[in-house]
Design a protein that fits this description.
- The protein has about 425 residues and is of the alpha/beta class.
- It is built from 12 helices and 19 strands.
- The protein folds into 3 domains: about 150 residues, 3-Layer(bba) Sandwich (FAD/NAD(P)-binding domain), CATH 3.50.50; about 160 residues, Protoporphyrinogen oxidase, mitochondrial, domain 2 (Polyamine Oxidase, Chain A, domain 2, Alpha-Beta Complex), CATH 3.90.660; about 90 residues.
- The longest helix is centred in the middle third of the chain and has 26 residues.
- About 40% of the residues are buried.
């Protein structure tokens, strides 16, 4: 009988699977629990009519963290199992394609708009030393890009994505998520017209077959996974965690929705319960995703800020790998159109007819929770909950557990950090 700790991991998205793999590879006893019949969480994929459907957007891999890269490629054959691609993203405005990010491609807009943006940037530059510190997303966008770009792109696009007052989104939430704007760099980019390479995913790796589901399936090999599991309770009994009144564990890593814990935690801890009740105020958005056939294009992403369109982006997943398409003989490819919120199939079909590419809908998926939205006290509340839960060796991990907008690479980075911490506490050096 092993003396190593027994971990229960709740959820089989990239956060749950990656940390389980790390712990298991270092000898820990790990058991995963998944409420659905299919593993993968937000990066799950399914083949439909020969096309690969990224059911919640389109997920690719890259990282600027060498630890993440080293760990990831230790589990895959990069040369034979993946393809590398250049990000080719555009913004669709006034029936024209403008480069992304828009501030680096101002020269592609009409002359009147360009002149207004120049005036905005000159004004911003002139008052730069007099500006107060901005503390919310709306002020950040206005004070760094100006009113013209804000109204043309940033306001309508972000309103679609977040569906909330941008002035209520704290600025520190953006740390590490976006390149910080610099007027000198904006001017330089528009003069030199150099390709954008500051973003993490300016180039990316993508599986030749299976998309991000291939990543999940590979990492889950040899892991003990309980599917269709209904988590009803977590209690604390004599120094052990009790799941559903019949399963004992030394520690729980929870990657589900933190808002659900108020109905699951049965531990007699008034402070913890009061903190969990505060999560009721947390906001999130679901997404309606539509798998479509489209005319061939060399794009990878197309952003749709204009309010005439309900959809906010098209992800050309058929260009990520030829194997994502049923056939490439007729110059058609697959793509995923993403809408914020829940939409009827009838309204989706009507909206898709407005979009470029002669789109033909194939399949639909609604994900109730896709995007977390932070408020001014979200991180404070989450940190207090983490402190309280740590007394019982329960750890929040992942996008909806920590209420952070983590992409795949950040989820893996967080798994490396947490697994190293847990193993060190056991006296084990993370390998």
């Amino acid at each position: 009988m092993s003396n190593k700790l027994a971990y229960a991991v709740i959820g089989t998205g990239i956060s749950g699977i990656s940390i389980s793999k790390m712990l298991s590879d270092n000898g820990s006893n790990v058991e995963l629990f998944e409420k659905n019949s299919k593993i993968g969480g937000l990066i799950k994929c399914e083949k439909i009519s020969g096309h690969l459907f990224h059911k919640v957007g389109g997920h690719v891999f890259n990282s600027k963290d060498n630890r993440v890269l080293d760990w990831f490629w230790s589990n895959f054959d990069r040369e034979n199992e993946f393809v590398q691609a250049e990000r080719n993203a555009k913004i669709f405005i006034n029936n024209s394609y403008v480069g992304y990010p828009i501030e680096n491609f101002i020269y592609q807009l009409d002359s009147e708009c360009i002149n207004q943006i120049i005036e905005d940037l000159l004004y911003i530059s002139s008052i730069n030393k007099k500006r107060t510190i901005v503390r919310n997303f709306k002020s950040f966008l206005l004070e760094n890009f100006g009113k013209t770009l804000f109204e043309l792109y940033f306001r309508p696009y972000n309103n679609k994505i977040w569906n909330t007052d941008l002035s209520n989104i704290p600025l520190d939430w953006l740390d590490g998520k976006l390149p910080m704007p610099n007027i000198k760099n904006i001017i330089s980019s528009n003069f030199l017209r150099a390709p954008e390479n500051a973003m993490v995913h300016s180039t990316f790796w993508y599986p030749k077959s299976g998309g991000s589901q291939f990543i999940i399936d590979r990492l889950s090999n040899n892991l003990k996974i309980n599917k269709n599991f209904n988590l009803t309770s977590i209690d604390w009994k004599e120094g052990k965690l009790l799941v559903n009144n019949n399963l004992f564990f030394d520690s729980i890593i929870y990657t589900g929705n933190v808002k659900d814990l108020i109905n699951i935690i049965k531990i007699d801890d008034k402070e913890l319960i009061e903190l969990l009740l505060k999560t009721k105020q947390f906001k999130s958005n679901g997404t309606s995703n539509v798998l479509c056939e489209t005319n061939y294009t060399n794009l990878s992403w197309l952003y749709l800020p204009e309010e005439v369109f309900s959809a906010h982006r098209i992800i050309y997943t058929g260009n990520f790998s030829e194997n994502n398409n049923a056939s490439i003989a007729e110059n058609r490819r697959s793509c995923v159109v993403e809408f914020s919120g829940k939409h009827s199939i009838e309204s989706i079909n009507k909206e898709i007819s407005k979009l470029p590419g002669n789109l033909k809908p194939i399949s639909y998926n609604y994900e109730e929770n896709s995007y977390v939205i932070q408020g001014k006290k979200t991180r404070e509340i989450i940190n207090d909950i983490k402190t309280c839960l740590s007394k019982y060796k329960i750890y929040l991990h992942g996008r909806f557990a920590e209420w952070e907008y983590y992409n795949m690479d950040i989820c893996i980075e967080r798994s490396l950090t947490l697994s190293s911490k847990l193993l060190n506490e056991e006296g084990i050096n993370f390998q």
